[in-house]
Amino acid sequence: MPHVLIMRPIHDDAIALLEAAPGVTVEVVHKLTKEAMDAALPRANGIIVRTNVVDGAMAAQAPGLRIVARHGVGYDLIDIPGMTQRGVVVTITPEANAGSVAEHTLMLMLACARRTVQYDARVRDLNWGVVPELPTHDIAGRTVLILGFGRIGTRVARLCAAFGLNVLVYDPFIPVGTIRGSGYEAVVDLRDGLAVADIVTLHCPSSAETRGLVNADFLGAMKRGAFFINAARGKLVEEAALAEALRSGQVAMAGIDVLYDEPVSATNPLLDAPNCIFSPHTAASSHEGTRRMALSAAQSVLDCFHDRLPADVIVNPEALQRRPALAVAG
Q1: Dihedral through CA 89, CA 94, CA 100, CA 102, nearest 10?
Q2: pLDDT, tens digit (0-9, with 9 covering 90-100), for 118-154
Q3: Which CATH number fits the domain that encloses residue 45?
Q4: Which pTM value belongs to this model?
């Protein structure tokens, strides 16, 4: 009888989907203490995880584990080699949150352009009207450079085009013809795009190649006074360099949803930049997006139990050849 371990609560509709499956049992661990996990892991055939670590030691405690379903798209906290070695498939929810993150990205762009946070604070202090030191801007007619043309980047491009922005795309892994065929200008040399873009927005994964991508050299290559948006991964950015660029005016405004180390600490240099606005890694966490992610993760668990996982959700397909057997009812 397959047993699903859910590390912290997810949307009720997803739990109901699992509980309705014949022969499947569900356990939600609310507080992830060592004692609670030590008791729960040995029974687990599937794990649904949100933002917690799943490592090889945990997998070793779950000999019947077949799948770790990530409630989201990033899998930095999951030991992929360790899971693959044990035949544990890791999945993501690739379509579930793309629209939510794209909308959040546009929100950050608009908040930067219109100084929304700063003017909100002024009104609460009983100040009224536009002041010269806080100029506001339209985004229509501006040029945006989108780094990454995956599921989220393509949606951001469509939204930006709808707002009247000139859209440039840089993605060395996507053919230039594909980008141009979608109606956008492809940038071959990143520095060329940085030099002309009024807004730079990141939509690429964190990897050995991209970690620390946004450094002093990157920021120095940007058009002076541009906006910088990151709703992708915190480890793409060297935060001290960004803080200095904000202080000097090289970057006029930044909209940041993710940090190098989370949760935020008092020593983060960006906190001292008044021209940086934040959200606490909530781009994907709209009510609708959270429900879609939960349902997608739950469906992946059920699909894994019945050997019908779609290829586009699997992170480590090599694990498919190593999976332990599982008896599933009906």
Answers
A1: 130
A2: 999 999 999 999 999 999 999 999 999 999 999 999 9
A3: 3.40.50.720
A4: 0.90
